[in-house]
Amino acid sequence: MIQIGDKIPATTLMEFIEVAGEGCSIGPNPVDTAKASAGKTIAIFALPGAFTPTCSAKHVPGYVAQFDALKAAGVDEIWCLSVNDAFVMGAWARDQKTGDKVRMLADGSAEFAKATGLTLDLTARGMGLRSNRYSMLVKDGVVKALNIEGPGQFEVSDAETLLAQVKAGL
């Protein structure tokens, strides 16, 4: 399992873009995690699935609400990762009104989740292999803080916890 001090996995996530710009075409675009995190401070949070109750009611809205505070504390970008396809993540971004505050990144085949060791097997509930719920602070590709939730919990991966860690200088 990924630990504080480790580099994040070098995988490719997908991001749905609705408006062409800055070298991004309309539609799903690949995001190389190593390149996208280089030289940046990134607040990453991952969750089991788009449009699921806790994820939609608490997790994503918390990061949208704390966007200004996280930016003021030195975070360059906020990434939301889920084992869904880019089209679903794009629709969820519209639904959650993430705008340019949170990058909604699809880990469609769970490659990032598998590489971190933070998977959640929800096969018995008809959802297959998913990502565990967690947050991490990443500086220049290196994990500086890692907050992993217990099964069915939402206590440590929220935006307020990560904001406190950023402010503490992690």
Automatic annotation (TrEMBL):
Active site (UniProt) = C55
Q: Which reaction does it catalyse?
A: a hydroperoxide + 2 glutathione = an alcohol + glutathione disulfide + H2O
Q: One short Pfam family name for this protein? A: Redoxin
- Return one GO MF term: thioredoxin peroxidase activity
Q: Which InterPro entries match?
A: PRX5-like (IPR037944), Redoxin (IPR013740), Thioredoxin-like_sf (IPR036249), Thioredoxin_domain (IPR013766)
Q: Record's Gene Ontology CC terms?
A: cytoplasm
Q: EC no.? A: 1.11.1.27
GO BP: cell redox homeostasis; cellular response to oxidative stress; hydrogen peroxide catabolic process
Work out whether the entry's keyword set contains Oxidoreductase.
yes
Annotated keywords? Antioxidant, Oxidoreductase, Peroxidase, Redox-active center
If you read the UniProt record, what top EC class would you report for this enzyme, in one word? oxidoreductase
Q: Does the keyword Oxidoreductase apply?
A: yes
Highest taxon of the source?
Bacteria
Q: Which residues form the Thioredoxin domain?
A: 2-168
Family (UniProt): Belongs to the peroxiredoxin family. Prx5 subfamily.
What does the UniProt record say this protein does?
Answer: Thiol-specific peroxidase that catalyzes the reduction of hydrogen peroxide and organic hydroperoxides to water and alcohols, respectively. Plays a role in cell protection against oxidative stress by detoxifying peroxides.
State the protein's name. Answer: Glutathione-dependent peroxiredoxin
Gene source species:
Hydrogenophaga aromaticivorans
